[in-house]
Amino acid sequence: MRLNRLSDNPGARHRRMRVGRGIGSGKGKTAGRGHKGQKARTGVSLHGFEGGQMPLHRRLPKRGFKVPYQRRYQVINLGALQKAVDTGRLAEGANVDGASLVAAGVLSQIRDGVRLLGKGEIKAKLSITVVGASKSAVAAVEKAGGTVTVMASVPSERVAAAASDKKAAKARRTAAKGSRKGAKSAAPKAGGKSAAPEADAKA
What we know:
The protein is 33% helix and 10% strand. It is an alpha/beta fold. The strands form two sheets. Strands 1-3-5 form a three-stranded parallel sheet. Strands 2-4-6 form a three-stranded parallel sheet. The mean pLDDT is 86.
């Protein structure tokens, strides 16, 4: 074998078709784009257009609504905590919260808080601090000798920003409504006389 004799397998490389190079090439004249019309041009997007009638994606009803400022919690089960203790990621009797779970590699992120659920079994004694816990999870932890502290959740920057945007939009709507009412009350009634001509008449 010599380096100057290396080549691709037959059919591995295909030569690009050159369009618009004469009728005899097979791809000349219209260059594969058909004859005239809007779709023969570049930059045309007609997806969902049905000739002017109401398209299907507008005829179908809307379903559901996603709250932009809804809080998203990270969920952890009792079985995951026990597995972390068995593998040495968490020490028995330690204080466990969202930051310690992320540092131990049990969770990748906290989001808007950690919620404890009762799937699995726990035997280790742990002091757990979360923003929410099910009754079965609290009972299982207390049975093992540990404690569960449920604290108020602090909204993340995403939730706080969305909530502030909602308040600002509401304030703008209220201000616009008040300005419309003021302009309507200040406008003279149709067919009524103004106070200035009456004063001129008396003078």
